[in-house]
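My hope is that you will study the protein record below before we discuss the fold together.
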Amino acid sequence: MHVHGHDDLTVDIVMRTKDRSLLLARALDDVLGQTHRSWFLTVVNDGGDPDAVDALVAARSAAWDGRVRVIHHRESAGMEAAANAAIRASENPWIAIHDDDDTWDPRFLERTVAWLAEHPDAPAVGVRTEIVWERIEGDRVSELSREIFLPELTQVTLAQLLRFNCCVPISLLYRRTALEAVGLFDEALAVVGDWECNVRLAVHGPLGFLADEPLAFWRQRPSTTPIGARTGRSATASCVSRSNATAPASLSTSPASSTIGSTSCIADSTGSTTASAASRTDTTDSSPYG
């Protein structure tokens, strides 16, 4: 579907959700707050209560200006299938994944669209990301602390992505043609499908990175004792470990495999990968969309 006034700068925003009305309301308002106004939002309710999602969308009907659709899955299809359903239902040239619990700086789309438009060979662009630790208390979300995710990161390379996922979904804007060229997200993966897709994109072409101020906010809800206190590691290290897989630090001429944390990966000499998924840990959120 083309948006009203479709042009080459229109972004298809994918928002996956399941039974998290409090967070979904915040995410919907976050999209509406973007300074770049040329976008179309597809909300994928992946097996959750449809009435709750419809009510939140309808409550903002005056603001959408025809720029929203909702896809309801009666049963959960999984994170990657939910993303692919939204992508296949849309056709604008840029794609962003904005899950129900994360947020953007108001200028995220403005800056990433401008960068990709100026760099036609790049399949995607990532941004500096801030981890926001928070806790849900009844009908409100309380922020606990913040820290920069991978503060030493200045560029995104294939070698880095074969070690860990340095660009989480909320931090990326994809070029549709590139994402379709690599086959979209692997629906066989329960989690870390974004990492595996990033590797395939990096083989397709160099990813950009806006390394200055944080424009994406990766929100985490720790259990009673924060991850860092329980493991003796920084929050950033814990997030990398629990949400990413690793592959060989350098490409070789023969297939190699490596396992770190909760996911194993096999990479061949072309950089193609196969990953086995494992569930996330360390959060009070039982949803895969945490």
The domain at 11-244 is CATH 3.90.550.10 (Spore Coat Polysaccharide Biosynthesis Protein SpsA; Chain A).
